[in-house]
Specification:
binds manganese (II) ion, about 375 residues, binds guanosine-5'-diphosphate-alpha-D-mannose, glycosyltransferase, transmembrane
Length: about 375
């Protein structure tokens, strides 16, 4: 079980200085924290061959420039600057996959995690006692005292849901501080979601008990500079992740959100239809068209803010995206009606035909939106 964790006797001489540990640091607007973190890693990891990979989502505060400058003085430092993408999980995945050290750790840039635990975590992996070591706030000796009441409540709730619904056994699946064998990670990587915040939960849930996990306590500190990027939207991401894992990844997080937004669009449509028909006394076809356009518009806005938060269109691209979205949805409507008709033809059950048409519509809209409206840059 302990293969390839330590360099063996057959290791060629040029491998002598290769890192045993790769520390992955996701960053977004952390320019005032990265230098301190690097110094602290240096101190904590004396005697270990290590490297650090900062994964920055093109921070407006220029974090990547600071990291780049550090990297020019220290070959252990690397910087991945991602453009047109956002997301903590995706950044961590990309960072781990960019390394080739046998062990990879993920740690926040804002000094809230405890880098002095890294050697202990590494020893557990190298000793073969575990495949994954989690820095835990919720076991004896750990704490999250810096949390306010609201944040502590949310964290406890999410932890409870994860444990009960996804049958995750560890005490702190919401932690963002962990170390994993890269080969194990590599096996799971294709099934992980790049969206959202909860990379550790995703890893543990996806592994379905196949990883040997150890938890070690740490104290979650307070942030020195800058601010947290956790907003109320991460609750949605979390919910989506739980549902996706429950359905064995048949439905993706994004698809679920897209479908939820779509159902909301139905309400918008009906509400507009009602108002225009009853209050403005417009004829039915015009009222129906009005409802459809407004529902598509609100769907577009919601999708741009929620479903594709990490690829949000901005400025002029919004207009272009909106027009494309109208186009996609109009074709989707034809697909919807077409399928509904042919099902009804075979089996004249109104709700079955209606549901089949709606499903066809949402699948079409989703697939085409991903291709044309919010396409990956
Ligand atoms: N590349 C990238 N892209 N990095 C990001 C992004 C992003 O979209 N969003 C946040 N980060 C980075 C931050 O710069 C920071 O280094 C780290 O991810 C954690 O983000 P914070 O904004 O500091 O989050 P937090 O302190 O509220 O959340 C922490 O606590 C959670 C547990 O309650 C994180 O450690 C989470 O991972 C953890 O689950
Ligand atoms: Mn933080």
């Amino acid at each position: 079980m302990n293969e390839a964790i330590r360099p063996g006797p057959e290791t060629p001489p040029q491998a002598a200085g290769l890192p045993q540990l790769s520390v992955i640091v996701p960053t977004f607007n952390e320019r005032d924290n990265v230098t301190t973190l690097l110094r602290q890693l240096e101190t904590a990891l004396t005697g270990v061959l290590w490297e650090v990979i900062f994964v920055d989502d093109n921070s407006p505060d220029g974090t990547w420039e600071v990291v780049r400058a550090l990297a020019r003085q220290d070959s252990r430092v690397r910087c991945i600057r991602r453009i047109g993408r956002r997301g903590l999980s995706g950044a961590c995945i990309e960072g781990i996959l960019a390394s080739s050290a046998p062990c990879a750790a993920v740690i926040d840039a804002d000094l809230q995690h405890d880098e002095t635990q890294l050697p202990k975590m590494l020893a557990l992996l190298q000793g073969g006692q575990a495949d994954l070591v989690v820095g835990s706030r919720y076991i004896e000796g750990g704490s999250a005292d810096s949390f306010n009441k609201q944040r502590a409540g949310a964290s406890a709730l999410a932890t409870g849901v994860a444990k009960r619904v996804l049958r995750v056994k560890i005490a702190d699946p919401m932690s963002g501080f962990f170390m994993i064998r890269r080969d194990r990670f590599e096996q799971l990587a294709p099934q992980l979601s790049t969206q959202g915040f909860k990379i550790l939960l995703d890893i543990v849930a996806t592994a379905r008990g196949k990883l040997r996990i150890k938890e070690i306590p740490f104290t979650f500190g307070s942030r020195l500079h800058g601010e947290s990027k956790l907003d109320s939207m991460v609750a949605l991401d979390f919910l989506g992740l739980v549902l996706a894992k429950l359905t064995g990844d048949v439905v993706s997080l994004r698809f679920l959100m897209f479908a939820m937004v779509g159902s909301l669009g139905l309400f918008v449509h009906l509400a507009v239809l009602f108002v225009v028909l009853k209050i403005f006394d417009v004829r039915f076809p015009e009222a129906q068209a009005c409802g459809a356009v407004l529902a598509m518009t609100s769907n577009f806005i919601l999708n741009n803010f929620l479903t594709y938060r990490d690829q949000r269109l901005k400025g002029f691209a919004i207009l272009r995206g909106l027009l494309l979205f109208y186009l996609v949805c109009s074709v989707g409507l034809f697909a919807n009606v077409g399928v509904a008709f042919s099902v009804y033809d075979q089996e004249p059950v109104w709700w079955l035909a209606g549901a089949a048409g709606a499903l066809m519509g949402v699948v079409w809209n989703y697939a085409m939106s991903g291709l044309f409206v919010w396409r990956k840059r």
